[in-house]
């Protein structure tokens, strides 16, 4: 069903508004800071105009524990080079375990080869303390890198918390990543320790990775020790690993242990995340302990409305920043829910079944998952008890108005749907949900507190109700502190600040509406421009989703010398379907009706699969460059793709297009 963008779908009740965490924060601001805000937009406007007071209020409201007090909130006024709370020293893990309680579990986890299990806060604490001591004995200390090659399982959370407790630097890659992809990530950071599994299960199939682990270790001369997790096979042989210590031994303890916490400077590294690496080696993005701590507390407690005992799930792998965001739920005292496996195995109801079994409150997923449920006529509310579920959060790509509508029709009519947009670069969302705001189809509810988001035209003018570049025009604590091995800072500068000097350009097309919501239209460098009319690719894909025989699609704009362009559309058909003239006509008619006649594709091709990154995002720009005649090896790193052979079709087509 076609749903009009901007249709009002949900308004929070008076009780929901009164009980929201953000309402408590506003009351606290009024009582202790004498700052009155009449609504969310007024609160946001104050938060970005008085950054120092706002972030200091976040520090105080969440009672941040510093081993050394801060003197200043930030040094410098420029977006580049700002240091937050420069005198403070703290520890991320310490802030997790101050929530230790007997009243709710810390973690609920399950996978394709593990039964559902609840983990108490005490067990999480003791296992982390034991692993901390093992790492210490192996010489791991502040500033050392710990690389993890493991899926989204309980042990990975323990490993991260133990690493951060020592002031060491965490970095993870999912075991479904190819050998070269992981090597390109870990070689750059020279890890001293590695935590690894022997393999994983996905879609009912087992994948042994011991040969990959051996190859990785041979390429990492900095490694001194390995913590081994027999995940696929309890009898796995890790004998080829460097100084292997089994997980059971690494976390063994005869008596109750006490954690120690190494204080680090607010701006010292917590972890290293990576860009997709589609056009070269992945960029190693470094975030600070303090910046992530403040931002995740703010985003998860105030925007996602998590509190002690909340049950928080996000479908993710350890190779996506949403894993780090999910683990951040522990900072709020929430129970985090981990799932490792396919979202369609043993059937397409597996995650909704998990929501029922765990009494999930927040269901985090991707827009593509919601679209797949919608296209497959899944109706969770008719099969599962979702009475505990109050929020569906979506990210990864823009959620269409129809995706919003599906949640209200087929999940719950009073659900709070929150689309979000951010990225690995900041390990959070710039634009996200708000529990006291209404929900409009296809629109993100608000810009996050403290995030001075604007939309710029090509000349750098701030615009409203028009599509422009998503920019950040003021400093933000979880911006990267630097890229690893980028001593000059040039690689980071060219990644974000080339387009508008002194302004962070995120690379997305955005429209900020008159009611202060936002709509993302896809990557700005992938926009379709026919006859001077620009349209984001997300609008194209939204329309092709109307065609029931179509599984997925990708469109690129190939400029010609006369000012015109060719716009081929590549279609993946559903199983049992084939691209016919009738379906082509239906696609063209839908695009003509819902976009414009100028955005009807010049060609439509059927392909078996679309090139996608390891995190499942469609690769548009490299496909465009290949079709424009550039050498494929020069424009894309095949190791960054989950299906590298999918490029072959486009390389061959480029010879004749």
From TrEMBL:
Domain Acetyl-coenzyme A synthetase N-terminal: 40-95
A Pfam family per the record: AMP-binding
Primary enzyme class: ligase
Gene Ontology terms for molecular function: acetoacetate-CoA ligase activity
Top-rank lineage group of the source organism: Bacteria
Keywords associated with the record: ATP-binding, Ligase, Nucleotide-binding
PROSITE patterns: AMP_BINDING
Location of the AMP-dependent synthetase/ligase domain: 105-475
Annotated protein name in UniProt: Acetoacetate--CoA ligase
The organism of origin for this protein: Oceanobacillus aidingensis
Organism classification: Bacteria, Bacillati, Bacillota, Bacilli, Bacillales
